[in-house]
């Protein structure tokens, strides 16, 4: 867990009454939440709960049917480029182009984000994620763990105020995942931003996140401290609570949006 | 428009070419082979029809200009397809990059890669087959400009189609220039076309370039009015193609197609 976030810390992400429908089907329904500076928030839920749909809307690649998103106080719909300049992401389903080397990918995305002093920034990130030895290796030739570290380096290029991590530890071995969790905790501590994280690994969520949001059928059903929530709802662990929320979502319709 | 971001799209293409000869060779190889093939055909026809039309100037000149147009279009769609092939849409479009900057980057990439092909064609056609560029005079500039602008427009349109219909639509995009070639009157005057085809041809900017090229080769003057119409049409098509791309992109963002692009359909 990162240092306890201050409740008065500025909001880096504010999502208000977000909704996404495809025809008659609601993928996300009336979702509101916020992420504060230095806060690490877990977005949890079973497959198809609406986590990635929510993240795609925050990233501006999916238009909400209703609701608003503000990143660092900037309305995404009105000032997309300025809002996304303060954001970055890493997702297991969005690997960097495998036909470019690590250095080429970081230079390409560094220019897209118009990063100042790009070369020195890249060098620091290569060192931080211990990928300097792969700088001239094509990303497609790297192992899953190495590719994830490169994706994280890319995600930190612009020193984002809001960092979105969609299942960053999926497909990693336990040791590599542990290293990555430590790196992400350090990011939350040291940088000026907040992190929204999705994961299916309840152990790591409990270890890493300051707060979690349980999403099911496109709605947020529970919200709170991952170390306190299980006891509050009569569950032995976060994993048991997750399974109950996934199987019996109506039992948790607590009115949390 | 942020030029650093436009430059990023261009630099990415440079990185890909630097490490991949298979991307560099097509820039000049196929157009060079075309010039060699048509150069010998024109030379043969010149010998077989002594006192007839100058085939090197008319036929080879037409091939050169048409290949330049095709390369411009293919240069743009290839740069776009690099993002399709590497499944990079999410990474690229979830950034501050605007659609204008993205398309501008594709256009600059296409200009630079097409220049390589143009230089190779000019060197071969002039140096080996004696294509007399001086014959075209100053009109060579509007010829090239019309074909360049329309090639850009067609490339943007084709990219929008691939974005809309999915990766497999690239097979519809590649032959688009060939689909238009009968109407562009590359090798024959517009007058040989039936009237319904002539109507369509008059809406095709390349037809104005090739009609004027033939007029010059026949010893007549180029029509400034015709070239101006060709240029105006080409600029208009760029505006239409860009508006079409923006519309398709917005629709893809609304429907979820962009976020799930490799699935080819958001439905």
From TrEMBL, chain A:
One family name in Pfam for this protein: ABC_tran
CDD domains associated with the record: ABC_DR_subfamily_A (cd03230)
Start and end residues of each ABC transporter domain: 13-242
Keyword annotations of the record: ATP-binding, Nodulation, Nucleotide-binding, Transport
Domain of life: Bacteria
InterPro entries: AAA+_ATPase (IPR003593), ABC_transporter-like_ATP-bd (IPR003439), ABC_transporter-like_CS (IPR017871), ABC_transporter_ATP-binding (IPR050763), P-loop_NTPase (IPR027417)
GO molecular function: ATP binding; ATP hydrolysis activity
Xref: SMART domains: AAA
Listed PANTHER family: ABC TRANSPORTER ATP-BINDING PROTEIN, ABC TRANSPORTER ATP-BINDING PROTEIN NATA
Family of the protein in this entry: Belongs to the ABC transporter superfamily.
Protein name as catalogued: ABC transporter ATP-binding protein
Organism annotation: Tahibacter soli
From TrEMBL, chain B:
GO MF: ABC-type transporter activity
Membrane-spanning residues: 24-45, 57-81, 102-124, 136-159, 171-190, 227-246
Main localization, broad class: membrane
Keyword Cell membrane: yes
Compartments where located: Cell inner membrane; Membrane
Keyword Transmembrane: yes
Every ABC transmembrane type-2 domain range: 22-248
Keywords linked to the UniProt accession: Cell membrane, Membrane, Transmembrane, Transmembrane helix, Transport
One Pfam family here: ABC2_membrane
Domain of life: Bacteria
Membrane disposition: Multi-pass membrane protein
PANTHER family, per database record: NODULATION PROTEIN J (PTHR43229:SF2)
UniProt family annotation: Belongs to the ABC-2 integral membrane protein family.
Protein name: Transport permease protein
